[in-house]
Amino acid sequence: MNQERIKFEIDREKIEKIEDMHRWQQEIEKGLLEAEAGDFASEEEVQAVFAKLTNSN
Known about the structure:
0% strand, mainly alpha
């Protein structure tokens, strides 16, 4: 692999990481706005997600 190709790949990876971080930050901001508005998951919703994630139906 030549130097230009290596640099291109490194730059591409950096851009992907920046984009991922930006999406992550947007999700955090969305969650904060929902929390400030009092929009929280109900106990039933939390239990349903927990059951799904732990495969305990």
